[in-house]
Specification:
homodimer, 21% strand, alpha/beta, 10-stranded mixed beta sheet
Chain lengths: 303, 303
């Protein structure tokens, strides 16, 4: 199987490099890092063992890339409108596009852009960052869940999962909508609240007022998911997310890093869209509506 | 009538000085400003005409003050526990204590401390600040609403209203609980949100996201008031508050000043207590619960 990676950053860079390291054919689209990677290769500093790819199939444009069996999309979701130009050169009849992005409604929107392409959700559970050109810093975790959205070839999903596992990445197939909402249980409180209160996960959970607020917000996601037909998600799951985070290294979620570095925040797919979907299903996420408004205010004030 | 003022700051200082200026006998308790005022008197810089009181009945302790017919309390509500020591020397059998403070539940708590004292709520609609020792800066507005809580002498309430009017202060008698909740419609969104987002009233209302959020929070107060039995308050009142604020000079509410100057915030009577009262009446103020949690987090982080 030939892989393509669009958005070779903290996420796409890590997973693509892991596959390439075990000999898979992987073609990477780079933006600012192209010239550096052509000359120096790609470095992955990883808690699971660092490694370096001397020879990388690096491109500045997807027009120059070959068609692929599987495309991993690691773009920030704020750039998904670019897919209408970026994706077509990589597509053949049965290409599977795995959207390794956060949020709700992503597959639905990309499917509208490409009605016949096969899509899957990629849920990355990983702390990583691209700290400098050609260098991915993988701090901890790293597993990925794959949720089939519109792929008619089950064996292709199986093969992707298998390729990840052979590359040392813990991968599992999951139900796509349940997986997206489960990830939102963690994402929606922690991404936004660390921005709104300019803090980190551990400090939020040490204060009893914000601990309760995080729990309340998680329960809004649980209840929204239930309203949207996802039944296998409950209060115990929220409690487990809090407990996991208490025992996690103090962490700045991706939205906090985006805000601090004056990059656009993924407010639409992380907040606006799930809030809208829940509302359509008859449920109001009131505290998360407030958080969304605060984020949109802060982003405007911060530019 | 002999007046006493406890808490001679932006509020107590202004209203007490206005009464004294027209010849009323007013006795002022000072804290840090005592020596300065003894020597220099009290200055009021006012949009309605500035004036200076050369001779002020100033005290460092209520033990030295005479008993009074009316006591105006202009303390920050975070200091109300001090009333158990401050008030008794000023009380005679029919003293009326006017609590010129923001929030819900204040009369109820003070009445528990002094079961037989006559109480009224004072709702001050004024932009003023104590900017330096012995100097009150009155920027705009200035009217005061008086709501009888437990005063059995209607003529006394009438006389206070009359004294204020003769002193050039627009005063009116109102229904106490309705007046407190109506003031909360403005106070709860603007005090907390200017702290949470480090901004001013005008900027909050210019952003469509926070404009909607302010409106949502106002409607939570309206619905909480209705749940607590206050019927004469509705969406039109909230819209009027927003419209008034749009046309107001950009303003930092008292809680924002308290936060910026590292003084304790009136979170309990402005948020915790109304949220509790509404909850007891079966209504959850969800966005204002979130704001309360954010304020408690920020106050702890800010010390």
């Amino acid at each position: 199987m030939r892989y393509g990676v669009i958005g070779t950053g903290a996420i796409g860079g890590y997973y693509g490099a892991k596959l390439a390291q075990t000999g898979k054919e992987v073609h990477f689209l780079f933006h600012r890092d192209y010239a550096y990677v052509e000359e120096h290769g790609l470095q992955v500093d990883s808690c699971d063992g660092s490694f370096h790819l001397d020879k990388v199939n690096a491109y500045q444009s997807t027009a120059a890339m070959p068609v692929c069996d599987v495309v991993l999309v690691g773009l920030k979701s704020v750039n998904n409108h670019l897919l209408s130009e970026l994706l077509p050169p990589l597509l053949k009849e049965d290409t599977l596009v795995v959207l390794i992005q956060n949020g709700i409604g992503i597959e639905e929107d990309v499917q509208k852009m490409f009605p016949t392409v096969q899509l899957a959700a990629g849920l990355a559970f990983i702390c990583s960052a691209k700290t400098e050109p050609g260098r991915v810093n993988h701090q901890c975790y790293g597993y990925i869940n794959i949720g089939n959205y519109s792929c008619k070839q089950q064996e292709k999903i199986d093969e992707v999962v298998d390729d990840f596992r052979k590359a040392g990445v813990d991968a599992n197939e999951v139900e796509y909508l349940e997986a997206r909402w489960k990830k939102a249980v963690w994402n929606m409180p922690f991404n936004g609240m660390t921005v709104a209160l300019n803090t980190q996960t551990d400090i939020l959970l040490q204060n009893p007022n914000t601990l309760q607020l995080v729990k309340d917000q998680m329960m809004e996601v649980v209840e929204a998911a239930q309203a949207c037909g996802v039944t296998n998600i409950d209060e115990a799951f929220a409690d487990k997310m809090i407990d996991n985070t208490v025992h996690m290294t103090p962490y700045s979620p991706s939205m906090k890093l985006d805000f601090d570095f004056h990059r656009p925040m993924e407010t639409y797919y992380l907040y606006t869209r799930p809030i809208e979907e829940a509302k359509k299903a008859g449920y109001r996420m009131k505290k998360l509506e407030m958080l969304e408004a605060e984020l949109r205010f802060l982003e405007e004030a911060h530019v």
